[in-house]
Amino acid sequence: MKAVVCTAYGPPEVLRLKEVESPRLRRNGVCIRIYATAVTASDCLVRGLKFGGWRRPIFRAVFGVRAPRRILGMIVSGEVESVGRNVTAFTPGDHVFGMDGFRAGTYAERVCWSAHAALTTKPANLTFEEAAAIPYGGLLASYFIRRLNVREGQRVLIYGASGAIGTSAVQLARHLGAEVTGVCSAANLDLVRSLGAASVIDYTKDDFTAAGPFDVIFDAVGRRKSAQAMANAAKALAPRGTQMSVDDSFPRTRTSDLVSLKQLAESGELRPVIDRTYALDQIVEAHRYVDQGHKKGNVIISLQ
Asked: What is the rounded CA–CA span in Å between residue 177 and residue 173?
């Protein structure tokens, strides 16, 4: 099968499209023909080994010393081709989508994952590409929205509201009944407003702390980019308010969250946001674009 191999840690050019052996199906596994996947910020961090201090040797030990041992890509949207003999939750022909950051392997024509991964049937009203735009941002946003205990009537500020995590967080917080303020660039103000934000702030012109107080402040970007902007965020918090960054915890994905995201997508409460779509042989260009740090929502790889 065709797959993208990461030949070393480094810039997007270390990615190569090659012929590799198809993955082996195990008794508790599901083999999926991939029709779409996503290039996530996490993929780019691993590819470039963009971790400092003590994290760098740990990630080398986990992923590989000189290059990642495994095929990258953590998002799947496709069709079940076969299942292991112990699997009853899925059958060949099922259209599925999901995420597995540990097994990865979705920059390829096929992947074999455990049936216990965050995997479920695809929203019936979405294309495979649209479905691939939900798991990464949706599952991470679900985790942090739960940790922050977002609820009806709260004032919630989401910094980085136009990214993969941010666009999902805006919609999930709005669904819970919160009043959402999104912070993004001027080019994305209309997008964030269309997702349900009650107000939007252009971070290049205005200080969001002046718009407080907020019950919840969620940094959906991460400290590598937001450190300066978030330095004074605490002064915008209401008494007993809560602040959190995506860097503050390692998200644990739940299949139950994915099922909820599917239901919200089918009801129209959650809209996938796709910036650009590339073919598998354009993976280098896709990574270059994501590395720029200005994508809106998700960058999708279509294998159909």
From this structure: 7
Kind of pairing, strands 2-6 and 15-19? antiparallel
Q: Identical fold at 2-134+272-302 and 136-248? A: no
Query: Which among 143, 140, 189 has a CA at the least distance from the CA of 296?
Result: 189
**Tally: H helices and E strands in the chain:** 9, 14
Report whether pLDDT(121) > 90. yes
Q: For 197, phi and psi rounded to 5 degrees?
A: -70, 135
In this model, does residue 170 exceed pLDDT 80? yes
Distance CA 182, CA 185 (A): 10
* Cβ 262 vs Cβ 133: under 8 Å: no
Top mean pLDDT of 31-40, 44-53, 228-237 is at 31-40
Per CATH, domain 136-248 is 3.40.50.720: yes
Alpha-carbon distances of 127 from 80, 105, 224, 276, 300, rounded to whole Å: 16, 21, 33, 15, 12
233: Cα separation from own chain's centroid = 24
Section 71-81 average pLDDT: 98
Q: Characterise 161 by phi-psi region: left (phi > 0), alpha (psi -120 to 50), beta (else).
A: alpha
Q: Which two tokens stand for residue 198?
A: 């009650």
DSSP H helices in the chain: 41-48, 55-63, 128-132, 135-147, 164-175, 189-194, 223-226, 255-267, 283-291
CATH class assigned to 2-134+272-302: alpha beta
Domain residue spans of the chain: 2-134+272-302, 136-248
